[in-house]
Amino acid sequence: MNIPFYIVDVFAEKKYAGNQLAVFLGADALSAEEMQKIALEINFAESTFIIKLESENSVAEIRIFTPEHEMKFAGHPIIGTSWVLMNKIFENQPEKIALSVPIGKIPVHQSGDLVWLQAAQPEFLDTFLADDFLAFSNLTTADFDDQFPIQEVSTGSAFIIVPIKNKKALEHLILDKVKMNEWLHAHCKTSHRALYFYCLEEAKLISRMLCIENNQLIEDAATGSASTCLQAFLLKYHSSEIQIVNHQGDFINRSSRIYFDGKLTENHFDIKIGGKTQFIAKGEWEV
φ, ψ for residue 117 (rounded to 5)? Predict the structure, then answer.
């Protein structure tokens, strides 16, 4: 059996930047085990599998896999898969579609060359002390931006948001994999354990996402789900309205740009992230 697939770069202003994504069509015949093996074989941060397609309603159901596990929600796979559907699959090229993932339906729309998703309402979980990070990083107490808490936030996938004072500390960040992994397992409320460091320096937002996967310390080039958590965090603690571009991936030569457009009104979070997608390749995968 052969199934078609597409490769795109997501949150990328040009080709060979942003975060890579493989999108597999006609995946309803695949088992979860087969999807996981394919995701490991292609070894991108995530791969998506379209298991149901309703062209007449502009709706699709997808499953998202990292090389190690399935995700309930992830931003760059939803943005990239939606771009493929709207520009390569759906004949009427709709500007609005809905993607069903394990946490529910995600509304998506395309405006110009940007694809936007609407995130779910956030959960604000535990807060942590900066001193916790001194044991598994090269950061000092002075490197943390103490205007903001350190807090685990989820919009479907959870991330610990870590505010850093400046770009220099963010750029030269070093983490001890073993000690970091022990701390994450001891403190994270969910099975998805990751750190999202950011700084706001001279109104420029810069971020880095790091996690442990397949016993390796991994840095992600662009993390849409973490960006929705960070946007919620900034709406709660920084400003009730935000329009800004999140710069991620610059320190690993995969420059990514994630557009924020958010508003907090009477405890309701209107969280939208957007990005550009670059078409790279298409082919057939032999299962």
Answer: -120, 150
